[in-house]
């Protein structure tokens, strides 16, 4: 309590001594009784009040129990001591004259006082001090107080939080703003103000139309605002914005979230805009690295393979033909050996330009590797002979284009090609691998014929066709006879601990022994046998999850199952998966379905809907062989994915090929920005593992940790105590 009549804050070391005839509290009996009556009366008025009576020197003459409880001192310890006992220190010198004048004039003083309790803690009182007359004793001062410590602490906490929030807003690199339902800005952070080029105070109260000169941009802002306000849902838009400082425009991802009052009514929007220019550039760079040749700018083998797959589907459906022209430069090695690789690179770049100029926009020119190029012709005649004639004319034009001299470092250089041609389509579903092999074989026939010429692939060479037919019949029987089995390849975490497994189907043929999956999986996809085969694998995988769930050491292991395009597009795919999971009793959250990038092409809405139905019940999704397709980067943020799997073709040469290393780093950075897990496939050496760990990869799969095999072998290897 503050002293009522003096600016001093001294503390009496000893209480006043008692004199004869005085009460136990050191006061004359009559006075003590009067003061007690005052205290009791004040306490009765407000049972929660802190009450004290002091003399003109600030000595406590009487106090109530509430004050004793608040300050932690007993009444005998307080009465007779000066107010300095409580170390009141909030009454600033400027307040003291006001207090003295108020009390001297007989008025009541009101204020807030900070005090210290017996244990050293601080407590606050909102106090009123009034003079009271005690008969025959002059004036005394009645102090009434309310304990406002909790309120003050809450105010201080709120003030600290406001300071912290302000610091956060000041430091936040993203632009943040609040708008009311009419679009007027209520608040913005410095990043937003700097981008707009105005002070925050000059922005508050204005609308987009007041701040942005571009009417079309204002219209787009208003449209997204209305959508969020109308639906009551968060709206995310990507928009190119031009900073006020005149620098280059930047791409922003803006998230607008409706704000509601206590009754649930939408009162405005919270907006957060993040500069994603670099992220988009990273995505484009990843796409460029993954699908285009760095030297020539042409599509690479991966992109060609993907486009060829599309072309095969189209020609099989439309009954038109297409052709692959496999081009190899004659004697290219001689140029590299005599003039150096730099000159060889110049020649390859010029060859790429001439090939591109010689074909239609609907055709594809790709660098297949080294001095090998592929020209894929589409939309040829539905008559096979006419299509062959069209392909031959184009190939002759390519021969002529590449037969002209090249300018290499100011010198004419002559290079001739050998071209092999393989027709496809016409209602027949060909294999991409077979076509490439056929065109390659035809190219070698052209070389054998003297170079600088072309040859067609002879279908009679395709002994593999009959072999495939026999394999299909064997596969059908094998499914019926139970020759198919499931092996498991371990998937480990950052510390090489077993995190789960991938279920891989194997075929043990009674006569041929183990048949490679590369032989029968594509065949099963083409013939429709992939549906019963995929169902078999899914059932086995779920059954294994159930067995694992019965042991504490394996209860959390995940299971990855590959899903083919034909399976995924089947109308009953979702029902079949859910039915299998429920019938087995497996934990759906431990099941991860692996999709390939090529599967994402086509009906994106249907793909998202199917994934969403399964995701809602716990089934996870992984994008397998990431980087080998060509259209999925733009879909990544739309699909409910949990994981990317880096294709082993990138991992294999990650320590030797700078392009592969750059692709892996890019994929890891992209996954981190999208909050996706990553598993690197095909890890075979500790060097590859170290590189991947260094750049943030958390999951690994490959021969370094174990080949696919029976589950018992995997458990013995990775669970020693099993």
Write a structural description.
The chain is α/β, with parallel strands linked by helices and about 725 residues long. It folds into four domains: about 30-150, Beta-Lactamase, CATH 3.30.450; about 170-275, PAS domain (Beta-Lactamase, 2-Layer Sandwich); about 285-460, 2-Layer Sandwich (Alpha-Beta Plaits); about 480-720, EAL domain (TIM Barrel, Alpha-Beta Barrel). The protein is about 40% helix and about 25% strand. The protein is built from 25 helices and 26 strands. Strands 18, 19, 20, 21, 22, 23, 24, 25 and 26 form a nine-stranded mixed β-sheet that branches. A five-stranded antiparallel β-sheet has the order 2-1-5-4-3, sandwiched between helices. A five-stranded antiparallel β-sheet has the order 7-6-10-9-8, with helices on both faces. Helix 15 links the parallel strand 16 and strand 17 (about 455). Helix 10 (about 275-290) runs antiparallel to helix 23 (about 660-675), helix 12 packs antiparallel against helix 13 and helix 18 (about 530-550) packs parallel to helix 20 (about 575-585). The longest helix is centred in the first third of the chain and has 23 residues, at about 150-170. The chain is elongated and about 135 Å long. The model is unreliable at about 1-25 (pLDDT under 50).
């Amino acid at each position: 309590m503050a002293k009522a009549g003096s600016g001093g804050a001294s503390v009496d070391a000893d209480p006043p001594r008692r004199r004869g005839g005085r009460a136990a509290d050191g006061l004359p009996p009559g006075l003590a009784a009067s003061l007690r009556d005052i205290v009791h009366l004040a306490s009765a008025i407000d049972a929660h009040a802190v009450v004290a009576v002091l003399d003109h020197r600030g000595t406590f003459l009487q106090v109530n129990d509430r004050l004793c409880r608040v300050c932690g001192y007993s009444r005998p310890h307080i009465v007779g001591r000066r107010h300095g006992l409580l170390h009141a220190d909030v009454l600033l010198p400027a307040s003291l004259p006001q207090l003295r004048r108020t009390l001297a004039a007989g008025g009541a003083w009101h204020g807030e006082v900070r005090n210290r309790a017996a244990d050293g803690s601080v407590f606050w009182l909102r106090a009123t001090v009034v003079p009271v007359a005690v008969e025959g004793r002059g004036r005394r001062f009645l102090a009434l107080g309310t304990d406002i410590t909790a309120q003050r602490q809450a105010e201080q906490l709120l003030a600290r939080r406001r300071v912290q929030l302000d610091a956060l807003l000041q430091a936040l690199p993203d632009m943040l703003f609040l708008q009311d339902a009419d679009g007027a800005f209520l608040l913005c952070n410095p990043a937003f103000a700097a981008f707009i080029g105005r002070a925050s105070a000059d922005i508050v109260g204005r609308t987009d139309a007041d701040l942005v000169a571009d009417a079309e941009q204002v219209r787009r802002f208003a449209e997204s605002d209305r959508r969020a306000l109308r639906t009551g849902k968060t709206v995310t838009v990507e928009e190119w914005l031009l900073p006020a400082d005149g620098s280059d425009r930047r791409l922003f991802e803006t998230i607008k979230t409706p704000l509601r009052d206590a009754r649930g009514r939408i009162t405005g929007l919270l907006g957060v805009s993040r500069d994603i220019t670099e992220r988009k550039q990273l995505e484009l760079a990843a796409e460029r690295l993954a699908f285009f040749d760095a030297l020539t700018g042409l599509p690479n083998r991966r992109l060609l393979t993907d486009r060829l797959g599309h072309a095969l589907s189209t020609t099989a459906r439309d009954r038109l033909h297409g052709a692959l022209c496999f081009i190899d430069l004659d004697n290219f090695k001689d140029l590299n050996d005599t003039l150096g690789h730099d000159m060889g690179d110049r020649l390859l770049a010029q060859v790429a330009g001439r090939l591109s100029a010689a074909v239609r926009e609907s055709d594809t020119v790709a660098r297949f590797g080294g001095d090998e190029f592929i020209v894929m012709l589409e939309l040829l005649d539905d008559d096979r002979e006419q299509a062959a004639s069209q392909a031959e004319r184009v190939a002759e034009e390519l021969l002529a284009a590449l037969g002209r001299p090249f300018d290499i470092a100011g010198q004419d250089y002559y290079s001739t090609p050998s071209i092999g041609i393989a027709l496809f389509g016409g209602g027949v579903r060909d294999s991409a691998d077979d076509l490439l092999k056929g065109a390659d074989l035809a190219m070698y026939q052209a070389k054998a014929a003297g170079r600088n010429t072309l040859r067609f692939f002879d279908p009679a060479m395709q002994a593999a066709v009959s072999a495939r037919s026999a394999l299909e019949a064997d596969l059908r029987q094998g499914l019926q006879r139970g020759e198919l089995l499931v092996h498991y390849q371990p998937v480990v975490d950052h510390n090489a601990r077993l995190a789960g497994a991938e279920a891989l189907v194997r075929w043990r043929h009674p006569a041929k022994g183990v048949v490679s999956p590369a032989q029968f999986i594509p065949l099963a996809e083409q013939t429709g046998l992939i549906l019963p085969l995929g169902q078999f694998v899914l059932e086995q995988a779920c059954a294994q999850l159930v067995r694992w769930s019965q042991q504490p050491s394996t209860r959390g292991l995940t299971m990855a199952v590959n899903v083919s395009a034909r399976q995924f597009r089947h109308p009953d795919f979702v029902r079949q998966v859910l039915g299998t999971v429920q019938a087995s009793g497996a934990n759906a959250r431990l099941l991860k379905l692996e999709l390939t990038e090529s599967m994402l092409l086509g009906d994106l809405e249907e793909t998202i809907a199917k994934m969403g139905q399964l995701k809602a019940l716990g089934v996870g999704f992984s994008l397998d062989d990431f980087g080998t397709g060509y259209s999925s980067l733009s879909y990544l943020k739309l699909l409910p994915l949990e994981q990317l799997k880096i294709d082993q073709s990138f991992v294999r040469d990650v320590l030797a090929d700078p392009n592969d290393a750059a692709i892996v780093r890019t994929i890891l950075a992209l996954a981190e920005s999208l909050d996706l897990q990553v598993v690197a496939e095909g890890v075979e050496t500790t060097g590859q593992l170290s590189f991947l760990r260094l750049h943030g990869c958390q999951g690994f799969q490959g021969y370094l940790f174990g080949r696919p095999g029976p589950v018992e072998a995997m458990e013995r290897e990775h669970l020693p105590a099993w």
